[in-house]
Design brief:
By secondary structure, the chain is of the alpha+beta class. Helices cover 46% and strands 14% of the residues.
């Protein structure tokens, strides 16, 4: 695993477990990166990968994962996805005033742990990026399959720091939600879990 981490470290923008400022003084790169921030045909993750690549020339996706699954060693998932724990293995003997120790305690209290994620992407075409993001979702699904754990991820550097738009739900939306809820109640437990698990994976894409 050490050699895998070192190889990835040579390709990443940040060291493992870090998120430094995204700095670029090349105006042509900045101009090119800004082209993607307003693209309506791209998801936020797709925009973010292209935005990040144009600024840094890094061929890959740095992301942050949040999960109730706790593991203290880095792991390699299918499709070459790497996850690196961003917390202390043990708080015993650590200085409670250190930021990492404080962050670890906060994670333990909330039951949600943070991981630094990396997905190498050699081909930065839009189609290839979509395929890689789908593979990322597939890789993350192993947690739900193996332990029923939830895991969510987000770009470490969202394109242009874009925030999610507000979705105002209409009465029709609320009616549809009610219908789905009624149907779910009538389903077998196993079928219901499978359907909502699939929806959650799609929601991450």
């Amino acid at each position: 695993m050490d050699s895998i981490l070192k190889e990835a470290d040579n390709k990443k923008y940040n060291n493992w477990g870090e998120r430094g400022p995204l700095v670029c003084s090349d105006q042509s790169k900045i101009f090119e990166s800004q082209k993607y921030t307003s693209r309506q045909d791209l998801s936020l993750s797709e925009k973010s990968i292209l935005y990040f690549y144009k600024l840094t020339d890094v061929k890959g996706f740095e992301f942050v994962a949040h999960s109730n699954a706790h593991f203290s060693l880095p792991i390699l998932l299918p499709n070459n996805v790497l996850l690196y724990p961003c917390f202390c293995t043990s708080l015993e003997g650590t200085n409670p005033n250190e930021p990492k120790a404080q962050a670890t305690l906060k994670m333990e209290n909330s039951g949600t742990y943070i991981y630094d994620g990396w997905l190498p992407i050699e081909n930065l075409s839009e189609e290839s990026i979509r395929d890689n993001l789908q593979q990322l979702n597939e890789s993350m699904s192993v947690f739900s399959i193996v332990s029923g754990s939830r895991i969510e991820w987000e770009p470490k550097y969202p394109a242009g720091n874009i925030i999610d738009s507000i979705h105002y739900l209409t009465p029709n939306h609320l009616s549809t939600i009610a219908e789905i809820s009624d149907l779910a109640v009538k389903m077998k437990k196993e079928d219901r879990k499978s359907i909502f698990r699939s929806i959650s994976w799609l929601d991450q894409s």
